[in-house]
Amino acid sequence: MRPVPRSLSSSRMEAFSDGVFSIAATLLVLDITLHPSGTPLEQVLHAWPAYLGYAISFLTIGAAWLAHGAMTDRLTRADMLLLRINLLLLLVIAFLPFPTRLIADALHDTAGERVFVTLYGLTLLTIRLLLFALDAYARREGLYSHDKADEELQTERRELWPVMSGYVIAIVIGLALPTVAVVLYFALAVFLVVPFREARGLLSKRS
Amino acid sequence: MRPVPRSLSSSRMEAFSDGVFSIAATLLVLDITLHPSGTPLEQVLHAWPAYLGYAISFLTIGAAWLAHGAMTDRLTRADMLLLRINLLLLLVIAFLPFPTRLIADALHDTAGERVFVTLYGLTLLTIRLLLFALDAYARREGLYSHDKADEELQTERRELWPVMSGYVIAIVIGLALPTVAVVLYFALAVFLVVPFREARGLLSKRS
Amino acid sequence: MRPVPRSLSSSRMEAFSDGVFSIAATLLVLDITLHPSGTPLEQVLHAWPAYLGYAISFLTIGAAWLAHGAMTDRLTRADMLLLRINLLLLLVIAFLPFPTRLIADALHDTAGERVFVTLYGLTLLTIRLLLFALDAYARREGLYSHDKADEELQTERRELWPVMSGYVIAIVIGLALPTVAVVLYFALAVFLVVPFREARGLLSKRS
Amino acid sequence: MRPVPRSLSSSRMEAFSDGVFSIAATLLVLDITLHPSGTPLEQVLHAWPAYLGYAISFLTIGAAWLAHGAMTDRLTRADMLLLRINLLLLLVIAFLPFPTRLIADALHDTAGERVFVTLYGLTLLTIRLLLFALDAYARREGLYSHDKADEELQTERRELWPVMSGYVIAIVIGLALPTVAVVLYFALAVFLVVPFREARGLLSKRS
C-alpha cells in the first residue's frame, strides 16, 4: 500500500495514450488516394508520395509509441503535470495526419511543397521535443521506478541529440529542397524504429 | 470476495470510455482542411479557425478524460444507472467533432457564426453537466472508495461553478459576439487542463 | 492453475470488442452533416434525421456493449467458436454506420426511404440475434462462471422476446410507414438502455 | 521476479495492436457507398462489391487478430526486434482499407480490375507472411512460455502452407480473372476464420 499522492493510475494514461497512438496511425490510411490520371497501374504507382507519407508518419508514430511505452512502463505513478505534458504530446500526435495529407499532395504539385514540408517537419520535431519533455519531467520528479534497467529508454536518450539535430537539419534543407527533406524524414523514422545495435548483436550471435 | 451486486466490472466501463474519448479526440483532425484560396502559406495560416477548433475540442475532451479518470479511478464498482449516465456522456463526447467542424467553417464565413458557435457552446456545457451528474450520482450511491484522497477530483469540484458560469456567460456573449465566445471556450479549456495550483506549487518549490 | 483448453484469454476478446464497439459508435459522427439549404439555423434544425440516426445507432451500440459486457464479465474462458461468433457480431456492429448514413439521407428525401429503413432494421435485428447466439452458446458450453449473480444479464434475457418482436414488428411497419419504423427503433434503443426496474427501484427507495 | 531483459511489457504491445486491428477493421465501413445509379433497391443491391470487400477484409483482419492473439497470449516477454516486426505487421494491417476501397470500385468498373485486385492480394499475402515472421521469431528467440498448449496456434501453423499457396495461386489467377481471385480471397478468409475441426468435433459430440 504505497501512498500515491495526487496521481491517476498510470494504467489509465496508458490506455488513453495507446488509443490515440493507434487511432492516429490507422487514420493515416484515409488520406491515401490514387493519382487522379493515367492507366490504373500508373494511378497506383504515381500515388507513391501518399505511400511514403503514410510510411513516414506510421513509423514516426510507432517510434513515439515505443519511446512512450518504455517510459510509462517504468512509471510508478503519474502526477497531474505529467498527465498534462502527455496530453500535449497526444494533441500533436493526433494532429500528424493533417500535415501528412499535405505532403502527399505537395509531392504531386510542387506548388506549396516548401510550406507543407516545413509544417510536416515542425510537427515531427515537436513530437520528439514533447517526448523528451515527458522523460525529463518524469526523471526530475522521481516518477520512475529504479529496479528495472531499460535498454529501450537508454537507446532513446543516447539518440536524442542526433535525432533532434537530424530534424532541424532536414527542416532547414526542406526550405530549399523539399523532396530531399522528405527523404530525410523517412531515413529518421527508419533510424528511430530499427534497433541497429540489437540487430547487429543478433547477427553476430548467429555468426 | 466482496459482493458486487448489479455491477459490471468498472474496468470494462473504463475501456469503452477510454476508447470513445481517444477516438473522438483523434477524429477531430479529419475536419482540419486548408483555407481554399491564396498562396500555400496563406492557405496554411488562414486555416487558423480549424486549428483553434481542434485545440479547444481536443483540450476539452482531454479535460473531460482527466475528470472522468479521477472518478473511475476511485470507483469500487459501477451500477446499472452509472453505466447509463456514462453512456450519455460518451454520446455527447462522440458528438463534439460535428459542432467543431461547424465553428471551423463559421469563423471563415461569418454567416451562421452565431448559430454554430451557440451549438458548440451548448455541447461543451452539456459535457460538463454530465460529468457533474456522474460524480454526483457516484457520491450519492456510495460507489467511491474512501481510502484514497484525490486532488484531481477535488480540483474538479472546486472549479465546477466557475467553469459552469464561464460556459453560460460565453454562450450568452456568443449570441452577439461569436468570435469572443470562441476565445472564451479556448480560455476555459486551457483553464480546465492547466493545473494552476500544482504549477505554482512546483515553481515555488524550486525557488 | 485451472486448465484452459483451446482458449484465448477472454481479456483479449474484450479488448478487441471494446475497440470495435467504441470506434463504430464514434465514427457515426462523421455522417452528421448540415441540411444543405436554408438559413444557418434551419440547416442545423433540419438535420434532425442525422441526429436521430446518430442517437439510435449510438444507443443501440451502447446497449449491445452493455449486454456484451455482462456476458464477457462472467466468462471464465473463450473457446474457438465463441471467438468466431463474437467476430461475426463485431462485423455487424462495425457495419452499422453504413445503414445509419442511409436513413439520415432517407428521411430527407423520402425516395428510397423504405429500402434504407428496412436495411437499417435488419441490421439492428441481426445485432440482437448475434448477441443472443453468443449468450446461448456460452451457456450451452458452460463457459460462464456460476458464482456471480448478474442482474444485467437476467434483464437482457427477460427482454429478449419483447425486443426481438419489437424489431420484427418495426421492420414490417417500415415497409409501409418508414418514419414510424424509425421512431420505433428509437423507442427500442431507449428501452434497451434505460433500466426501468432499476430506475423505479431508485425512485421508490427515495420516496 | 523473472528477469525481463530489454523488453517492454507485452501487455502494452497487445493494447496498441488491438487498437490498430479494431480500428482498421472498423474504418472499412467508411468506404461502403451505394451504387450511384438505379432505384434505391438497386443502389443497395448493386453495391455488393463493397459488401464483399468489407467482409473479406474484416474477416482477414479478424483472422489475423486471432492468430496474433494466440501468439501474444503465449509470450512471456516482447523484445525490441519482436516489437518492430509487430509494428511492420500493423503498418500493413492499417494499410488494408486502401486496397479494399480499390477493389470495391474495381468490381464495378472492370477497368483496372487486374491491378487493384493484385494489389489487394499482395497486401493479404504480406499480412500472412508477417504473422509467420512474428511467430517464427518468437519461437527462435524462446519468447513463448511452454506451459500452455494452444490449439489455435497449432491450427495456424498447420494451415500456413495451404493458406500461403492459396494466396499465391489466387494472385496469379487474378492477373487473368480478377473476379475469380476476389472469390478465392473470400474463401480463404472464411477458411481462416471458421474452425472446421472444432465445428466438426462439436457436431459429432452432439450426434
SSE layout:
The structure is a homotetramer of 207-residue chains.
Chain A: E1 7-8, H1 10-27, H2 40-45, H3 48-74, E2 78-79, H4 80-95, H5 97-109, H6 113-140, H7 151-158, H8 160-176, H9 178-193, H10 196-206
Antiparallel strand pairs in A: 1-2
Helix pairs in contact in A: 1-3, 1-4, 3-5, 3-6, 3-9, 4-6, 5-6, 6-8, 6-9, 8-9
N→C terminal distance of chain A: 49 Å
Tell me, briefly, the overall form of chain A: elongated
- SSE class of chain A: mainly alpha
Q: What kind of sheet is the major sheet of chain A? A: 2 strands, antiparallel
Parts with pLDDT < 50 across at least 5 consecutive residues of chain A = 1-7
* Rg calculated over all Cα atoms of chain A: 19 Å
User: What oligomeric state do these chains adopt?
Assistant: homotetramer
How would you explain this protein's 3D organization?
Four copies of one chain form a homotetramer. With 207 residues, chain A is mainly alpha-helical. Chain A has helices spanning 10-27, 40-45, 48-74, 80-95, 97-109, 113-140, 151-158, 160-176, 178-193, 196-206; strands spanning 7-8, 78-79. In chain A, strands 1-2 form a two-stranded antiparallel ribbon. In chain A, helix 3 (48-74) packs parallel to helix 9 (178-193) and helix 5 (97-109) runs antiparallel to helix 6. The longest helix of chain A has 28 residues, at 113-140. Chain A is elongated and about 60 Å long. Chain A starts with 6 loop residues before the first strand and ends with a helix. The interface between A and B is large, with 34 and 41 residues.
